[in-house]
Amino acid sequence: MLALLEQFFIQFGYAAVFFILILCGFGIPIPEDVTLVAGGVISGLGYKNVHFMAITGVLGVLVGDGIMFMLGRHYGEQILKFRPVAKMLNPKRYALIRQKFDQYGNRVMFVARFLPGLRSPMFLVAGMSGKVSFLRWLMMDGLAAILTVPLWVYLGHFGAENKDWLMRQVHQFQYGLYIVCAIGAAWAGYHLYHRRQGLIARRDALLEKRRQRRLTREAKQPQAQQSTQQQSHSK
């Protein structure tokens, strides 16, 4: 795959990298990280400027992801009737992604950039939900893209002359990103659990306070009635 992309990019340059990255955003089974590394390789071989390639990479992934987000936002659940989308986003996967949104909120969009295979469906569902503004999506996905895309491009640039070393580094970086995602998910789950426990504790405290107030009012009512009766008898 790397060799094929390298030859294609040498022939067509930045436009080819941009185009392939948009296809990656549609869920086409072309590894996005390998695409970015291939762009870095041709830069390392002197065909293109590595800094412009990194910018092209960031723009390509954001446009591809953004198209998926806007399709979901424009068509809503009607887009599930489109066969390729229905195949990519089957009912089980759709329910799973909605559950993750309910659990972790907008943070899911940041993590989605590190999850090949789930990235496109997640952005599609984010648009379909109607709860995520385009600006919020752009902030989350843009931050993740700025952190990761240049990493792959510059890795390809530095390893352009040694493909065996490069591919070993690619696999190590992939595993590293998965570990980071796992740690991040565990931290988010831990934080969410304690936040939920805190909300439950505050709710219970508020209910208990209301109960005590009600008991106090109920205790005062007989005393007030007794005082009224005594005043009536004295008259």
Would you give an account of this structure?
There is one protein chain. With 235 residues, this protein is an all-alpha fold. Helix content is 84%, strand content 0%. The chain is built from nine helices and no strands. Helix 1 packs across helix 2, helix 3 crosses helix 7 and helix 3 runs antiparallel to helix 8. It is elongated.
Task: Indicate the mean pLDDT.
Answer: 81
Identify the quaternary structure here. Answer: single chain
The low-confidence runs, each spanning 5 or more residues with pLDDT under 50, are none
Q: How big a fraction of the residues is strand?
A: under 5%
Largest sheet: none
- Structural category is mainly alpha
- The count of helical stretches stands at 9
| Total number of strands | 0
Helix content: over 70%
User: What's the Cα radius of gyration?
Assistant: 28 Å
Sum up the overall morphology in one term. elongated
Determine the N-to-C terminus distance: 103 Å
Secondary-structure element string = HHHHHHHHH
